[in-house]
Amino acid sequence: MTKRDTHRVMPHKDGGWQVKRDGALKASHHTSTKKEAELLARPISRNQETELQIHGKDMKIQRSDSHGNDPFPPKDKK
Questions:
Q1: What are the domain boundaries of the chain?
Q2: Please, are residues 65 and 50 in contact by the beta-carbon 8 Å criterion?
Q3: Is the CB of residue 51 less than 8 Å from the CB of residue 5?
Q4: Which residue among 6, 43, 62, 71 is buried most deeply as judged by most CB within 10 Å?
Q5: C-alpha triplet 46, 3, 48: angle, nearest 5°
Q6: CB distance 50 to 3 below 8 Å
Q7: Non-local CB neighbours of 50 within 8 Å, separated by 6+ positions
Q8: How far apart are the C-alpha atoms of 78 and 76, rounded to whole Å?
Q9: Distance from C-alpha of 77 to C-alpha of 30, rounded to nearest angstrom
Q10: What is the C-alpha separation between 50 and 75, in angstroms, rounded?
């Protein structure tokens, strides 16, 4: 299985929320609310055709959306 390129919305260590791509040293965006981070992250993920994972404060993934080449499309989408 190939590793997917992923953007994440997750808590920032200094407070607030961040949008960060896997492998990046720094977040591309830092916001005060999760909603703001999601609104910034979704078009970035669509444009760059990456997976978008939304994390909670506990760092558990709450939602995941594929904006790229999904290796496992739903059977009704074939």
A1: 1-58
A2: no
A3: yes
A4: 6
A5: 20
A6: no
A7: 4, 5, 6, 7, 21, 44, 67, 68
A8: 6
A9: 35
A10: 21
Q: Which long-range contacts (CB under 8 A, 24 or more apart) does 21-26 make?
A: 21/50
pTM for the predicted model, two decimal places: 0.81
Write out the chain in H/E/C secondary structure. CCCCCEEEEEECCCCCEEEEECCCCCCCEEECCHHHHHHHHHHHHHHHCCEEEEECCCCCEEEEEECCCCCCCCHHHC
Q: Which residues contact 30 (CB under 8 A, 6 or more apart)?
A: 12, 16, 17, 18
Q: Which amino acid is at 6?
A: T
Question: pLDDT by residue (tens digit) across 43-55?
Answer: 999 999 999 999 9
